[in-house]
Write a structure and sequence with these properties.
alpha/beta; five-stranded mixed beta sheet; globular
Amino acid sequence: SPPYAIVSHQCLHDEEVNFNEYLHLQPATKKKLGYRKIVEACKKAVCDHLEYIWIDTCCINQSNHEEVARVVKSTYSYYHNSEVCYAYLADVKGSPIWRSKWFQRAWTLQELVAPRRLNFFKADWEFIGDRQQLTNDIHYLTGISPSVLNGSTPIHSVDIRTRLSWCAGRKTTKAPDLAYCLLGILGVSIDPDYTEDVQSAFKRLQKALIRSYPD
């Protein structure tokens, strides 16, 4: 695929622009905060000399279950293969970054460690810093070691139990996502099933882990 940027963010409740809304833009849609996020992210990509960008809210057709399943299983590689990831902290205006809910969300875990470059932005799209500059803050907030954050320790060489511990206490909108967000981080694959609870999702994840890492 051609070089692309990618966006990580907390969902702006009732303000996001979905796949169909973006395809058939209405004046009311353009007033949403989610539309402004798309426009501002595209401007950043242009500044980084990139012609393409991937934003989950408007790039995934949520009514297509096969597409959703494919994306859930591939999200880690989407972030890993990007040129740069923009972490948009919509709840950081003047306050310190550690107050942001972004750091407690389940899906942002892989978005934190998978991309080669990760740049953080405030609500008004002012640049805060990149992952290298914020390593100590991020380590303090997440418990992920600085060597993983700065890329000197490859994620798949980290002990499985340590990788599992990174998701402790994280928040999800859909319960089984707490297991699904670990697929790329653990290097295993299971089909998402949003009718299951978090316990059965973790049981299936555990079986996949045992198959991949018998020891």
